[in-house]
Amino acid sequence: MPSAYNRAVVDPSTGDVLGCLCTHCIDDYFGRALAAYAGDGSTCVLCDRRGDVALPEWQCTSVEDEDCVVVTGVDASVSPGTPHLCAAHLDDLRGEAAGRDQAVPRRARR
Question: In terms of Cα–Cα distance, which of 32, 26, 14 is closest to 55?
Answer without folding.
Answer: 26
